């Protein structure tokens, strides 16, 4: 009888655990996995991104302006890898300081390469897993440089 009571109490505690653990701790394991998958990016969870996971490269500051928002969608083709490139050139007095990307479908792209953060030209390359699509939202932020 004692073991039955102990099992019942432990079951009740286990059932209540999900209600007690804050969302930030729930996402800790998935955040760790995403950080390992994309080591060059910062993983963010934010209501601003409709509770989606977002990845960023570059420094987040309050004085940045939104330069570009672009959704890239390349449909899946069975047995083939999909590729997409985005090149953005700002005027010479604007420096691109941050790129944020949000995957809009799963699985995530196998490779995202962002080059040129800190300059006026950014080149973004996306590669899908074999047989999967690419569906990503990119936001580029920057600052105006005084001449």
Automatic annotation (TrEMBL):
Residues 1-18 form the signal peptide. Keywords: Signal. This is Uncharacterized protein LOC111361935. It comes from the Eukaryota. The keyword Signal applies. It comes from Spodoptera litura.
């Amino acid at each position: 009888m004692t073991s039955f009571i102990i099992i019942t109490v432990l079951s009740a505690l286990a059932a209540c655990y999900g209600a007690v653990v804050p969302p930030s701790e729930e996402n800790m394991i998935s955040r760790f996995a995403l950080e390992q998958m994309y080591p060059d990016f910062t993983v963010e969870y934010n209501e601003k991104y409709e509770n989606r996971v977002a990845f960023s490269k570059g420094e987040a500051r309050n004085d940045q302006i939104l330069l570009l928002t672009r959704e890239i969608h390349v449909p899946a083709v069975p047995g083939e890898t999909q590729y997409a490139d985005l090149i953005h050139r700002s005027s010479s007095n604007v420096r691109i300081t941050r790129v944020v990307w949000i995957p809009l479908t799963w699985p995530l792209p196998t490779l995202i390469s962002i080059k040129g953060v800190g300059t006026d030209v950014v080149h973004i390359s996306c590669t899908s897993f074999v047989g999967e699509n690419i569906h990503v939202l990119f936001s580029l932020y920057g600052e105006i440089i005084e001449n």
